[in-house]
Amino acid sequence: MTRLDESGAAARTSKGGPRRRGARAPGRRGVPLPLLLPGIVALAFLLLPLLALLVRAPWGSLPELLSSTEVWQALQLSLITATAATGVSLVLGVPLAWLLARTDFPGRGVVRALVTLPLVLPPVVGGVALLLALGRNGVVGQWLDSWFGITLPFTTTGVVIAEAFVAMPFLVISVEGTLRAADPRFEEAATTLGASRFTAFRRVTLPLIAPGIAAGAVLAWARALGEFGATITFAGNFPGRTQTMPLAVYLALQNDPEAAIALSLVLLAVSIAVLAGLRDRWLTTP
Amino acid sequence: MITRSERRSRRMLQVAGAGAAALMALSACSSSDDSSSSAPGSSSGSASASPKLSGTVTVFAAASLQESFTELGAEFEKQHPGTKVTFNFGGSDTLAASITGGAPADVFAAASAKTMAIVTDKNDTAGTPVTFVRNQLEIATLPGNPDKVASLKDLTKSGLKVVLCDKTVPCGAAAQKALEASKLELTPVSYEQDVKSALTKVELKEADAAVVYKTDVKAAGDKVEGVDFPESAEAVNDYPIALLKNAPNAEAAEAFIALVRSAEGQRVLGEAGFLKP
């Protein structure tokens, strides 16, 4: 049971296949009302706004609203940047998760808490912090500018950075949970048999925690796709370069709510399609 | 399997969750307090002949009004003890959208007639909006104007990072008008969602210049330098103010509008750089 608790909600769906089936059987006999009622209310609460979006959608003018190049630009940009941000999160986040789960160093608890900080930080604050760090005049950014001539704000790279900043913690937490749930004795056995620690990680640990990584990556991707605050603060808003779907939705809402609803539907459809597709392929395999 | 640090961090999450819940409960309390204190205030006010104002006045105002309205709000609270003025500053179009969406507000002060029309079109105002000030555009550059920006045309120089307000926001619409009037093509690095975020990009030195209001340049002090351009005369914004139809505290709201239009209010707004209507 503790193992399940450790591995985050998403990892649980990925790993809990056979175990869950076992747990469900006794539950069927009688669902306690104090759990059933709030549960149904929660479900209605989560689904109602989405239903409202579908009910009020301007279905008639939808094709016309969605045929503009701005929509496709924004959608394309959103998909590319969210995927790139997930890639960055994977390359950097998985090693960080491994360090947090498998090594012992002083202040590890503090580091772990700091990693989760972007989860609670308002994204706009995250965007300002990124400006102060990586902006043209930022703590690090001024050197990037004067040494390499690289400026990140107002660029597509800036969007990827902003999205990775808010999305990576989801991946790190999810992968770390899976790592803790995975039995370290497999790795130990591998190192005893002569593998280096990195080889053991690559050949034993990675395949073992692959479903957890996939689940974390999906979470991070979804978070990056919906990112708004840090993006508009750090990367600005320019069609085709930094205007992602959420920004387009927000600005369309100002003068053309119908267009905003149409854009939201597209984002919703894309998210559902991708999440459903990945669920079938990765998340349900034990 | 659970190590101590894990348990600790999980407990920390729980504490954080409880803290967040407590905060939410607190804010819920305070907002319900506001409405309960304003409701009897307005009803007793309508009963007596000379109304004693009380309760909260909620003012939705364009981002460019932030400094002068905050000052006028403090002045209003001093003149009418027992009242409280709360502001929601933002892009006029955002504010208009939230008002037509049912946000509880007493007064709406927009930065353009067009954004006010969004509200009047839905019949959400009580009475006709009146123009209380006007505002002119100015170029905000980095302190000392290192890029030697002297005209609107200079902003089209390549390599210069310029931010504009989005076209849906009054300052963006006005900038577009000025650019069209002078037949200039300007590609900014970003279309910001309101005038303050456009200015912030220059204050943080991320952008080299922004087209904002004179009043914003003035409010920013020495963090930016203003450059006047003649084309701004083509795009002077009227600022309309109106009492809203569903105002929870209509009488205090009217008194606030009166203060804004009074000699005292005009003095404060004039000092901030606004033009007389």
TrEMBL record, chain A:
Any Pfam family: BPD_transp_1
Primary location class: membrane
GO cellular component: plasma membrane
Top-level lineage group: Bacteria
Compositionally biased residues, Basic residues: 17-26
Stretches for region Disordered: 1-26
Membrane topology: Multi-pass membrane protein
Keyword Aminoacyl-tRNA synthetase attributed: no
InterPro entries named in the record: MetI-like, MetI-like_sf, ModB_ABC, NifC_ABC_porter
Localization annotation: Cell membrane
Keyword Membrane set for record: yes
GO molecular function, one term: molybdate ion transmembrane transporter activity
Every ABC transmembrane type-1 domain range: 75-276
Transmembrane segments: 30-55, 75-101, 113-135, 147-175, 204-222, 259-278
SUPFAM superfamilies: MetI-like (SSF161098)
Keywords: Cell membrane, Membrane, Molybdenum, Transmembrane, Transmembrane helix, Transport
Annotated family: Belongs to the binding-protein-dependent transport system permease family. CysTW subfamily.
Function: Part of the binding-protein-dependent transport system for molybdenum; probably responsible for the translocation of the substrate across the membrane.
Protein name: Molybdenum transport system permease
